Each structure stands twice: as structure tokens, then as C-alpha cells.
TrEMBL record, chains A, B:
Family annotation (PROSITE patterns): CYTC
Cofactor: heme
UniProt lineage: Bacteria, Pseudomonadati, Pseudomonadota, Gammaproteobacteria, Alteromonadales
Protein name as it appears in the record: Cytochrome c peroxidase
Record domain Cytochrome c: where: 39-147, 191-305
Binding residue positions for heme c 2: 205, 208-209, 280
Binding site for heme c 1: 61, 64-65, 81
Keyword Nucleus: no
Amino acid sequence: MKHIIFIAISTLFSLNAAANRINNEPIKIIKPASGLNTDLVNLGKKLWFDPRLSKSNAISCNSCHNLATGGVDNLASSIGHQWTIGPINSPTVLNAELNFVQFWNGRAKNLKAQASGPIDNPKEMAFTHTLAVDTINSIPQYKKMFNQIFDSNEISIDEIATAIAEFEKTLRTPNAPFDLWLQGDETALNKIEKEGYALFKQKGCTSCHHGPLVGGTMYQKMGLVKPFETKNADIGRAAITGKESDKFLFKVPGLRNVALTYPYFHDGSIWDLKQAVTIMADIQLGQTLTDDESTKITKFLNTLTGEQPKIVLPQLPISTKNTPKPIML
Amino acid sequence: MKHIIFIAISTLFSLNAAANRINNEPIKIIKPASGLNTDLVNLGKKLWFDPRLSKSNAISCNSCHNLATGGVDNLASSIGHQWTIGPINSPTVLNAELNFVQFWNGRAKNLKAQASGPIDNPKEMAFTHTLAVDTINSIPQYKKMFNQIFDSNEISIDEIATAIAEFEKTLRTPNAPFDLWLQGDETALNKIEKEGYALFKQKGCTSCHHGPLVGGTMYQKMGLVKPFETKNADIGRAAITGKESDKFLFKVPGLRNVALTYPYFHDGSIWDLKQAVTIMADIQLGQTLTDDESTKITKFLNTLTGEQPKIVLPQLPISTKNTPKPIML
């Protein structure tokens, strides 16, 4: 009887601790995707992997946001049409829906607004929206799928973007060790990882890196306390607003799966996560971390790697005589 | 009772027909892969999708042999390092183990001998075998897998190629309508498709296109009866043997999944399958096909599309400080 009471009390305690953590911690749980349109997801998945959305027919969404490698390409910046080196590091698509805006400079308000951008960016897929639509429209299996889903005879770039965005919404990574701990599993984090998280809060990292994404809720100046030294020419949010005060303001990147998404920062200049932590503390918070502190925070960040989406490669419908031919040069 | 006897006789008849077809038809069934080493397959699958086997870290085996599109890239010739346009059309990896030699000119005797070729080809992945080995060796999860499988401490390019080849051996496409028909299912082909197959034999196509791959058993001169007009500079088998008589000899490509593997011929110049059929009959067999004959043969060729391999995208192990950095330019 005593034993049962003890278990009951400790269960209550742990349920209480879990409720407290979920409510009070600045980092929130990543939930699996739900309520999505399955047909639209399946269509979007085909389009995601379809290189025919690029001028060369050689670049798909997955080329730069590779779902085998954390939704990124692990390059400082991506390679686009005719081997053009992109101007900025490709952010991960994992959990990307949870960002308050899309792109580093926030120029798209949501995934759908983002999805059509790379298709006609001359440095990326280098196509035109018209040709992308013509391509998809020339493929009977696609045409049928669009017809059934959107109940219209004319495929549009808007519908293409809607489908890709719906697929991207499935790309959640729940059940990271940190999330299990948030839900009350004491053993999900070890002592060092818990100390790392305590330091992460104590040093002020959570002032920007909070919420389910551990970021992605605001813009912040890169080099808030000390200037960030980079060869990258991007001026951040100012390119959109034209405001001097928005110079070098970027969306705070989420840190979910950060162990997978090297190299770091908008210029992709730092390959080592611990070094990235040290630099951030220095230039954003004016804090000089000890080696031990950087190590612990890094170990905590490693606990943000969740279950990766299980992706069965789609089979793409074949082209027809009417499909525009690839233009490689 | 009469009814039962009738069923028994027709079953016997159909079993007999199936046995006859399997034994007597020049095209043989594609069987699913069997007897493979699962650990080696899983390792090979990761390597297959790993762009770190290329100098830029942007090109994987799957870039040019895309398993979402029939094991090819549907380009006249592939795009390699720094947007180099390759010299020849990328053949499919589906069922590729069944080819008597690998590459168009047969310079590799099997999949393993082939697999390491693109890695250090300056026009393809442009790496060196030494750097590829260093890369894989710098990644603990890979090191562990190699260790367990090969029981040695030193990863070699030979082991990398062995693993990739083992994965490729899984890429069979059984149960094409034609194979079901070969096995006695009368309804698997319609009247036109059966007529197409009869024409395929009658016109002499099976003299080269036979066996389980419907090809891949011999070399043949491209332009046997009339010269093949092409801008492609490849001289075929002669580049390997140095023999004048081997000029323009290429491995006869298999026609399995040919509906998916456009564009056609070693120069990738023809996008339409029916047109390819007409040209082949003309320049290889000296036969002028009617439009109706080309249509029927093409419809038969469409029945060679089998069940595509179900590929779950692997999660690639992360790089470390010791992993060589990508060299994009």
C-alpha cells in the first residue's frame, strides 16, 4: 500500500513536472503534422522531387533541401543553374512551417509564398513560372492529380506552390530527446545536457532562440554587440524594407536538428557547432564562454535532433511530346 | 464433373503455355533480387545517396541515376562537376546487374568495377578515390558499418564500390505486364501489345534485344545497315580495344522500363520512343516500318515497365571536423 501511494505520488509529481515544463520552459514541443490533405501531400511530394521544375531538368527542391541530410545540402551556399553559387546558406525545410516568415530576410510570409521563389530565381532553378506550369500541364498524370484536387482545368503556379507547401508541412521532427524531457522523461537528457540547457537560458540564448523551433519567431541583427565578420554581401532584411535600421537583420534561425544542418550562419562560414555557439555568445550577447560552457551548450543542442521524416521516394510521371525540353546551357 | 475436367484441362493448358513461353520466348523474366547481404545493401544505399562522394559534395550516384525516374536523369547526357556536360547518355541502373558488361563501351566487367568510375571522373563527381575514402573514413557511423561488414580497419575504394554494387543489385523491376504474360497470364497484354511483340520478333529486333534485359548481352554497331547520324564524338568499344573494327560498337542497351528512360540512344538525341523504334528498324535492320507497326512495337515496349524499387530515403551520417570540405570551384 505504501508502495502504491509512493508510485501514485511520484507519478503525480512527474505529471506535474511535465506540465510545468511544457508551460514554463521557453522551448516548446515539436508536434507531428496533422490535419493535412493526403492527396495534396502526395502531389506535393512528387513536385518536391521533380527536377523538371528547373530549366535544366537537373535541380529539384530536394537538391538544396536534401531530406537525407536534415533538409539542407550541407554547403556554405547552394549550387544553382549552370553551377551558380548561391548568395546565402540554404535553411532547412524541417519544421519550416513553424517559422514566423520564410527566407533569411522574411520576404515570404509562409511556405506557399516561399515555394515558388526558387523555381524562377535565375541563380537557383532558373525557370519561369510559365514554363514550369507548361511542363506540369504537359504530363497527364500530374494534370489528373491537379484536376481532382483543385477542381479546375488550368494548373497554376499558385496550385504548384500550394501542393509543395502541403508536402513541406509533413516535415516535422518530433520526439527529440529534449522534447521527451519536456514531457517529463527525466532520463531523456543526461546531466551535462541539462547543464547545457541551463547555461543556454542563463547566458540569454533563449531571448532569441525560443518556441518550438528554438528560433524562427523574430528578426535579429547579426552582430548585435560586436560586428560579424563575413565576406557575404547580404544586407538582410534591409534589402526588403529599404530601411538602414534593418541592415544585417536576419530571421533568427531555428535550432531544431542543428547538429545536422552545418555549416552555420547565413554565410555558412562555420562548420563546427561548438565554434558557432562560442561566436554567437560573443557577438550577440557579449559573453565569453569557457570551453566547458560551449561544450555543454553544444551537447544540449544535440538533443534537439528529432525523428527524421520517413520519405519513400516517389515515382515521377513521365514526360510527353509536349513537355518542354531541358535547357542545360 | 465435366466442368471440373474442363477447368483441369484449361489449367494444365495454361501451365503448359506458361512453361512453353518461359522456355521458348527470346525475352526472359526479370526475377526479384535474392541472396543479398542486408547490411551491405543498407551501407551501399547510404553511399548511393551520399553527395560527399563528389568533390563539390553536391553530386551523388542518384543525381544521374535517379531512382524517382527509372534510374536515369532523363537528360541527353548528365551534368557533372562545375556543370560539365557528360559525353554520353547515362544508362539506367535498374536491373543493371544483368548486363554482360557495364558502361556503353563495356569498360567495366561488373557493377562493382563500374561503381567507382564516376567518383574520380573529372567530368562527373570529379573527386579522387583517396579523398572519397578519407571522407567516408572521417565519419564514425560509416566507419563502424564498414568495420562490422568487412572486418578490417581500413576503408578502401574497393569496399565502397562493393557496397554500392550490392545496393544496385536490389534494383530489379519484376512483374512487368510482359513478365506476367510470359508466366501465362493471357490478360496481361492486350491484342495490340501482343501484335507488337510478334512484330518485334518478326522484324528481327530480338536478334540483339533478348534475354531478361531485352538487351545487354552483346555489343553491336550503331548504324549497322545505314550510318547513324550524330553530333556525339564517342567511338564506342574502339576506345577500349583500339580496334578499327570496334568503332561505333556499343553495348546493346536493355529495353526494360524503356518508357521511363528517355531520351534514347547513346547520344540521347531521340525523345520519342516510337521515333526511336522507327530509326532502329531502319539503320540496324534495313526495315521500313509502317506507322502502324511502329505504334504496335512501341505499345509492346511499354509493357516492359516493371514494379519500381520502393526506396526509403536513407538518413546520412553527419560529417566531422576531419571530413574534407566541399570544393565547389
